[in-house]
Amino acid sequence: MNFWARTTPGEASFDYRGAAAWEVRRPADGEPVMRHLVRCGVCARELTFTVHSIAATERRRMRWRRGVWASGVLVALGLVGLVSGHLGLAVAGGAAAVAGVLASVFAWAGGLTEAGVTGHGSGLPGVLPQHAVVLSPPSP
Ligand SMILES: [Zn+2]
Q: Where are the membrane-spanning stretches (predicted)?
């Protein structure tokens, strides 16, 4: 669990060392998600994380991959608009292409980091949560 964080002026920074390890059971395929409550050894906050089964984690990864493909389609449509020769379509196409690229990077990163554990910012690409979760072993 944890332990790095963004340090910016005016924000608290977190310098956690010696990460504690919790062993939690992942639900069997077909079982509902499990919520696990842990207490941070540094700030003493009680944190609830949601753990998904391996099959559910694979479905979540598939959703991220579909997001990458959908974003790619958005980029392609945007490029078609860009070369259409109409100013309005070109502007909209350029905006769609940029949005598609950003969304595809977000979805790609989400697929890479999807571990089937969510809560407190864990599992969200681009988020550096105070209490990040690292699985051991890292993925199913
Ligand atoms: Zn803490």
A: 67-83, 89-109
Find the 56 Cα to ligand 1 centroid distance in Å: 27
φ/ψ of residue 51, rounded to 5: -115, 130
Query: How far is CA 116 from each of CA 5, 25, 34, 44, 75, rounded to the nearest angstrom?
Result: 21, 12, 11, 24, 28
Q: What is the pLDDT of residues 40-84, one digit of tens each?
A: 877 888 989 899 999 999 999 999 999 999 999 999 999 999 999
For residue 15, the CA-to-ligand 1 centroid distance in Å is: 10
**CA-CA-CA-CA torsion sign (20, 26, 37, 135):** positive
The model carries a pTM of 0.72
Q: Which two tokens stand for residue 96?
A: 């769609």
Domain boundaries, the chain: 54-117
